[in-house]
Each structure stands twice: as structure tokens, then as C-alpha cells.
């Protein structure tokens, strides 16, 4: 009886500090989507800049509403091993303001909004593979369907207490499988359906603004601390701090490894390589950072930096047009980071599961990681390809070839990112009106 009384007294209570911390982390994760927009926006040609920005921003609008209406209920409600359900969470209509997330000291609303930000950025990651050639309306529909059919079930598998991957013991601290492998495999599935850009392997398709790329990478790096450290939900046992440190360490190591690979292979250390290497490190440490030591994080970063740098060239070898290397960075980086847990997990971080280098000579954790990685990869690849195929056969996924060649910004948004005419204004009609007005002023002056 005394023990029961003690346990009751130690039941979690609302923590203002943890709540505030998690709200800040949620805002940091949201910042990553505009950061991703700049990162991708700088990597495309000038005629596709606004479309790339909009493909990320539309995800914020669509996924926010879906998450409130039913996404949170299906992803984190109690149900089967494959999908959840909680009628009280539909529309967030029956959640108490101070109702705590089970086992933690933060409100359900805070956990909900933190996970919402993950759901927002994941489909946005896919957009980089589809640059220059997808109808904006078709992309918006794809985001809504993909979030419902692919992201929500996978999030349940990996993070819900009754999800099959969670119960199996698959370690994914903050989204190596549910976010990065999920998005990378989806990107591969879609591009295999919609095909290559006009001029792929023939025309130069260089980034139009490397400063924008670096700005985007910097915002991603900054926001990723909320993404990773926040995923321990404010617990004060030191694991969140370990994840914060490992995020910085692995990212730095991956950036240097990518640059070293570039220098040896191509003779130069590029700014695009630095930005891409940093993102590769962030991706790889996302699943593993709570399970490895800082020295292990260095190893994860170095291996991911080299592996992703090598993988981005596979599109030219195999002929799939992954415009901005989503497959090479997110899919490969997610796989590397998730599988290396089976080697470098110390058993002293988020769980007592140890890797091969720390005594697991039966490869138990490695096999669990393999099961999670390849199940998510296969499901996302196939489901995403089917969704793209259905949309392509109904609404049509691609813009006409002439619009792709002339510029998707003008055809899909009636705007251009930069005004080179000197008359000001980004809207096509607006520029014409201003030009006419300027000509009239000149006639009057004359």
C-alpha cells in the first residue's frame, strides 16, 4: 500500500518549463519548412524558384488542417498495430486544456502541435525530387493524399505505443524512418512514374542562387535542434541534451566528410557540397542520436557524408531524375543513420539496446532496424507510386512541355522570382501595366 501511495504521489504533473520548451521546439520545427523552401529554391533554375518555395509552403496549409481534422487521431490514437483511432481527438474537440500526454509533463495539445510540424515537413521534403515539372494543383492533391495514406500510418507504426515497429523495438528517435526514408522512398516512387525533366543529362541545370541554398541549410540546421532534442518531450534525464550534442557533432562531421569526398573526387570544396553534407548529417543523426555517444555521432556523420555524396551521382548512372537529390540525401541518409544504430548504440542512451560494437553479438538490434527500414521503404515507394499514377491518369501530374521549358513559375503562379526588366513587380500582369504606365509618363515628359 505504501508503494502504491508513493507511485500515486509521483504521477506526472504539468510542467510549465517543459511545456514552454516544447512550444519553442515546435516553432523551430515549423521554421525548418521555410528553411527547406529556401534550400530547394536556391538549388533550382531561376524559372522554377517560386514554384519550389510554394511546394513547401502549401504543405503547411494542407497538412495543418488534415492533422487537426483526423491526422493526429489516426497517427497516435489507440488502435491496431497499423493505424490508430481516437474519436475524442477528431477536430481536437474533446481534449482538455491541461490534459497531459500519457507519461509526460506536457499537455496533449503541445504533443499534438509538435507532431504536426513533423507531418508538415515530411511531404515538403519530397518536392525537391519533382522540381520543374509538376502541376501545382496536382502537387497539392498529392500532399493531401500522401499525408493520409502514407505518412499517418507510418508515424503510427514507428511512434505510437501500439505500432508494430515500436513494439518490435525499432529505434527511431526523431524520424529516420517515418520522415526521411518515408519521404526519400516516396520521391523515388513518384519520379519513376512522372519521368525526367526536359533536357535531363543534356542541359545545364545548375543552382541559380547558392546564397539561398546556404541560408536554407543554416535555417534547417538551426531548426533541427528542435526537431531532434524536442523529440524527448522535455524529459530531464539527459537524453535530450545528448541528442542536442550529437546533432551538432554529426552534422559537422558529415559536412567535412562530404567536402573531403568532393576534394578527392572533383578537386574542389563547394558551397553546395557543404550545405548538402550538413543536411546529410542531420538526416543520419535523426534516428540514431539518442542511442549513440558523441564519438559514435562522429562516425555516423562521416559515414553518412561520404555515402550520400557518392549516392547523389546514382541518378545519372541509373537514369532517374531526382532533381535536388532527395533520394541521395534523405533516403540514403535515413537508411545509413537507422542501420548504424545496430552497430553504434551504446545501451546507455534512450534505451538499453546495444549495438554490435557494444556487445550485441547476436545482431538483434540490427535486424530490428533492418525490419523497420525496409518495411517503410517498400510501403512508401509502392504507395507513393500508385498515388502519383492515379493522379497522373486523372488530373495529370506534369505541366505541358512548353510550359516546363518556358518556366513553371509563370505558368503555375503568374509570377517570377526576380524582375529583370527594371520596372518592378513580380506579377506578369503587374509588370506589363507598370511598363505601359512608364511609357505614358515618358510621352508626357516629351
From TrEMBL:
Pfam families found in the cross-reference section: Ammonium_transp
Entries under InterPro entries matching the protein: Ammonium/urea_transptr, Ammonium_transpt, Ammonium_transpt_CS, NH4_transpt_AmtB-like_dom
Which keywords belong to this entry? Ammonia transport, Cell membrane, Membrane, Transmembrane, Transmembrane helix, Transport
Mitochondrion: present as a keyword of the record? no
The membrane-spanning stretches of this chain are 20-40, 52-85, 105-126, 138-159, 179-198, 210-227, 239-261, 268-285, 291-314, 326-346, 366-391
User: Can you provide one Gene Ontology molecular function annotated for this UniProt record?
Assistant: ammonium channel activity
Q: Summarize subunit and interaction data from the UniProt record for this chain.
A: Homotrimer.
The UniProt function text for this chain reads: Involved in the uptake of ammonium/ammonia (NH(4)(+)/NH(3)).
Q: Which family does it belong to?
A: Belongs to the ammonia transporter channel (TC 1.A.11.2) family.
Q: What is the protein's name according to its record?
A: Ammonium transporter
Species the sequence originates in: Streptomyces bauhiniae
Q: What is the lineage of its organism?
A: Bacteria, Bacillati, Actinomycetota, Actinomycetes, Kitasatosporales
Amino acid at each position: 500500500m505504501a508503494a502504491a501511495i508513493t507511485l500515486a504521489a509521483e504521477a506526472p504533473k504539468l510542467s510549465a518549463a517543459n511545456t514552454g520548451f516544447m512550444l519553442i521546439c515546435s516553432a523551430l520545427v515549423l521554421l525548418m519548412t521555410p528553411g527547406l523552401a529556401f534550400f530547394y529554391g536556391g538549388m533550382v533554375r531561376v524559372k522554377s524558384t517560386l514554384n519550389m518555395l510554394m511546394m513547401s509552403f502549401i504543405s503547411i496549409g494542407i497538412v495543418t488542417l488534415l492533422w487537426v481534422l483526423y491526422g493526429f487521431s489516426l497517427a497516435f490514437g489507440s488502435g491496431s498495430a497499423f493505424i490508430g483511432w481516437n474519436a475524442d481527438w477528431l477536430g481536437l474537440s474533446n481534449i482538455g486544456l491541461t490534459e497531459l500526454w500519457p507519461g509526460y509533463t506536457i499537455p496533449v495539445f503541445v504533443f499534438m502541435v509538435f507532431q504536426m510540424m513533423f507531418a508538415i515537413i515530411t511531404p515538403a521534403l519530397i518536392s525537391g525530387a519533382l522540381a520543374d515539372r509538376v502541376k501545382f494543383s496536382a502537387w497539392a492533391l498529392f500532399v493531401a493524399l500522401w499525408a493520409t495514406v502514407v505518412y499517418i500510418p507510418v508515424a503510427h507504426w514507428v511512434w505510437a505505443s501500439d505500432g508494430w515497429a515500436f513494439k518490435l523495438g525499432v529505434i527511431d528517435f526523431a524520424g529516420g524512418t517515418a520522415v526521411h526514408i518515408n519521404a526519400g522512398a516516396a520521391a523515388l516512387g513518384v519520379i519513376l512514374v512522372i519521368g525526367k525533366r526536359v533536357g535531363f543529362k543534356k542541359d545545364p541545370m545548375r543552382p541559380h542562387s547558392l546564397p539561398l541554398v546556404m541560408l536554407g541549410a543554416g535555417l534547417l540546421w538551426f531548426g533541427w535542434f528542435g526537431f531532434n532534442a524536442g523529440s524527448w518531450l522535455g524529459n530531464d534525464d539527459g537524453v535530450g541534451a545528448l541528442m542536442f550534442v550529437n546533432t551538432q557533432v554529426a552534422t559537422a562531421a558529415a559536412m567535412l566528410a562530404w567536402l573531403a569526398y568532393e576534394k578527392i573526387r572533383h578537386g574542389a570544396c563547394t558551397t553546395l557540397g557543404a550545405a548538402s553534407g550538413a543536411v546529410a548529417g542531420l538526416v543520419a543523426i535523426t534516428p540514431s542520436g539518442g542511442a549513440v555517444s558523441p564519438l559514435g555521432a562522429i562516425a555516423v556523420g562521416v559515414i553518412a557524408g561520404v555515402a550520400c555524396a557518392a549516392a547523389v551521382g546514382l541518378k545519372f548512372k541509373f537514369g532517374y531524375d531526382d532533381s535536388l537529390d532527395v533520394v541521395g540525401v534523405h533516403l540514403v541518409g535515413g537508411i545509413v543513420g537507422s542501420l548504424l544504430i545496430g552497430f553504434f548504440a551504446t545501451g546507455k542512451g534512450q534505451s538499453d539496446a546495444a549495438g554490435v560494437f557494444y556487445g550485441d553479438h547476436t545482431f538483434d538490434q540490427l535486424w530490428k532496424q533492418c525490419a523497420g527500414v525496409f518495411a517503410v521503404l517498400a510501403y512508401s515507394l509502392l504507395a507513393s507510386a500508385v498515388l502519383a499514377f492515379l493522379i497522373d491518369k486523372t488530373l495529370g501530374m506534369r505541366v505541358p512541355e512548353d510550359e516546363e521549358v518556358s518556366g513553371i513559375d509563370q505558368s503555375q503562379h503568374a509570377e517570377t522570382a526576380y524582375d529583370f526588366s527594371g520596372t518592378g513587380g513580380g506579377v506578369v500582369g503587374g509588370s506589363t501595366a507598370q511598363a505601359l504606365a512608364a511609357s505614358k509618363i515618358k510621352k508626357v515628359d516629351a
